[in-house]
Amino acid sequence: MVSTTESADDGANDQGESRSENRSPALSATAGPVHIYPITGNTHGSRSKRRQVKNACTSCQKASKKCDDARPCLRCVKYGVHDECVDSPRKERKKGAKRGPYRKRDGAEMRGIQDTPTSPSQETEISLTLPPMEPLPLVAPGYTPGFYTRFPVPCGKREEPYPPPFYLAPAAPSASDASSPSAALMDAPASYPLYDQMTPGR
DNA sequence: TTATTCGGACGCTCAACAAT
DNA sequence: TTGTTGAGCGTCCGAATAAT
Ligand SMILES: [Zn+2]
Ligand SMILES: [Zn+2]
């Protein structure tokens, strides 16, 4: 049942990303890019939060499929529909709706989260203490910065699955700029290997 | 076997509300 | 002014179905 169909595809990759709670933290630190957020979920059993892009492209939105921050997004690259890869318009939220009185939370829940760490703050610490990435992000020609759950260029007839997702960092405009990793990496998750590190044939 | 569709669970944003 | 709550709306998982 291992297929590279879209559903399997997206699904499989998603699991690597948003369902990664099943990975061991140690593993994720080296080969397995996991969450970039301090997930409070645990490493056994319950699923952690799903990560969403801020704005899916029209194509992905239409298909209800996972998008990414790059444009064209991975899915559009895969299907060659670059034209459709534009941010989908968002409705304006209703305003003026009355809501009635709020219920106060007793706070037990909140404390419970802190006091009963199903998984000690380990996971959190991992994401918070990740070592700084080296300041030499490269960008592949033709691709915009963003998250890639696998290499976007088809290798042969079908795409080779590249298990570890990675982040395609924006190219540093200049050498001097490259010296400021924070700018270059922007919101790049430190746990994602860089594009050039993922290049096939490595 | 692979591609497409789609219902609905889950997650995020932000205006209304409440406290200070 | 600042913090909290929760409705509204968005993303995308995963299963069903269709096409090849
Ligand atoms: Zn997309
Ligand atoms: Zn797209």
From TrEMBL:
Q: Which organism is it from?
A: Roridomyces roridus
Its protein name is Transcription activator of gluconeogenesis ERT1
- Feature: compositional bias, Polar residues: 115-124
| SMART domains in the cross-refs | GAL4 (SM00066)
Give the record's keywords alphabetically: DNA-binding, Metal-binding, Nucleus, Transcription, Transcription regulation, Zinc
Q: Name one GO molecular function term.
A: DNA-binding transcription factor activity, RNA polymerase II-specific
Bias (Basic residues) occurs at: 91-102
| PROSITE patterns per UniProt | ZN2_CY6_FUNGAL_2
A Pfam family annotated for this chain is Zn_clus
InterPro entries noted in UniProt: ERT1_acuK_gluconeogen_tf, Zn2-C6_fun-type_DNA-bd_sf, Zn2Cys6_DnaBD
- Superkingdom of source: Eukaryota
Which stretches does the entry tag as region Disordered?
A: 1-54, 87-124
Residue ranges of domain Zn(2)-C6 fungal-type in the record: 56-87
